[in-house]
Amino acid sequence: MSDDDLDRRAIEILRGNDRGGYTVPTHGLYPFQWNWDSAFVALGLAVFDQARAWQELETLASAQWPDGMFPHIVFHVEDEGYFPGPEQWGTNATPPTSGYSNPPVLASSVRRLVSLGGAASHERARSLFPKMLRWHRWLHARRDPQGLGVLAVAHPWESGRDNLPDWDASLASIDTSRVGEYRRRDTSHVDSAMRPKKRDYDAYMALVAYGRECGWEPEAMARGPFLVADVGMTLIGLRADRDLLWLAHALGEGAAVAEIESWIDGAEQGLERLWNADVQAYCNLDLRTGARGGGVSSAAFLACGARAGAPHHAALLAHFERIGAHARYCVPSYDPAHPDFDALRYWRGPVWAVVNFQVAGELAAGGYAEQAKRVRSDTRELIRNAGFFEYFCPLTGRGAGGGEFSWTAAMWLAWASPNAPPELAAPTPGEHPG
Ligand code: GLC
């Protein structure tokens, strides 16, 4: 297929996964609206239909909880093909939702849509602004209860990087004796060798039961069996705060500036807590036990655009070179030299286009243009050779997981395609607009 054909195919996939106001990640495996997926999908939609791109984000925002939380799944319809559904979550939200949040990509997508222009963009961004502000406030209060300047997750699903090896030790201590029988649906859509193992799934379900039993009350969640400061959440959150600050200036929301700046300062000071000197990378940190993740995940490279990460950029770039020499395609979700690396199993090795998009953006923001270019051209090759899969093998380029995947199609249109508009991929401008 030519690149023009791939552009057309990507548009067809996004149209085919459109359920009217929101886009499902893929048919079958993920039949609802997912939070960070929609934020990426909006960028792809913006390439051919800006009004629909805004609507994607507005539909997501319509599921915000009264306390400010943006949930990670919105169950707009009933669908037996997915587990756990609204009954297991028991959140009593309208529309029904899950009980965890997701990396806050939304503000960064809004900033990019505003940069793209379009007649109504300021107006639509302005109506989303207070909702984003309240969500970020929720994240800093509820997922950083000790004010450490790092963002934690109360479930691996909250991070979006569900099956990362860094969760293993924290999940191992979770009591799964009360979980009982349940029927997974994911393994009826996708080869079980690519999906989490049963023991992991039992722990996931034990955590969902904990949340449900304490009514998803945030203080109880922070005291719960799982609270792990996450490199992805922290660095995506830092970028999102910078983008929200940019928006505050651009939209005349001056009253929010000091608060957003205080979050940015906090994260710049807190980031060092995630540095693992043994691994020479940023790794997750279990806030209950103090244990650190022990490998280089793709999220560590998100620090390459952070000023606070500057003392460690050389060490991170050395990992990038080493991993890039080992893996044909960057960026593997986990270090191929680590014993827990698994080339095709979910977040334990495969490459994701959305992570590559963010890593390339941070590399570019840090001035590492050559590395950013490699990440983009690898993503382009993966999609050209394999198609719009959920994720890809970093060693062979084989596509895996779900097919006709919305966020992969969106990342092609907004970034990896040679025809992508540069405004959508540009990192936060250093100066806020006058
Ligand atoms: C998987 C991924 C998660 C994503 C979801 C929908 O659960 O781990 O990051 O949001 O699929 O695509």
Provide a concise account of the structure shown.
By secondary structure, the chain is mainly α. The chain has helices at residues 3-16, 35-48, 50-61, 86-89, 106-116, 121-142, 156-159, 168-172, 186-189, 198-213, 218-222, 231-250, 257-270, 313-326, 353-365, 369-386, 406-416, 422-425, and strands at 33-34, 73-74, 152-153, 228-229, 275-276, 281-282, 285-286, 391-392, 399-400.
Tell me what you see in this structure:
The protein is mainly alpha-helical and 434 residues long. The protein is 47% helix and 4% strand. It has helices at 3-16, 35-48, 50-61, 86-89, 106-116, 121-142, 156-159, 168-172, 186-189, 198-213, 218-222, 231-250, 257-270, 313-326, 353-365, 369-386, 406-416, 422-425; strands at residues 33-34, 73-74, 152-153, 228-229, 275-276, 281-282, 285-286, 391-392, 399-400. The chain has a three-stranded antiparallel beta sheet. A two-stranded antiparallel ribbon has the order 1-2. A two-stranded antiparallel sheet has the order 5-6. The protein is globular, with a radius of gyration of 20 Å. The structure holds alpha-D-glucopyranose (GLC). Residues 25, 30, 34, 36-37, 160, 162 line the site of alpha-D-glucopyranose.
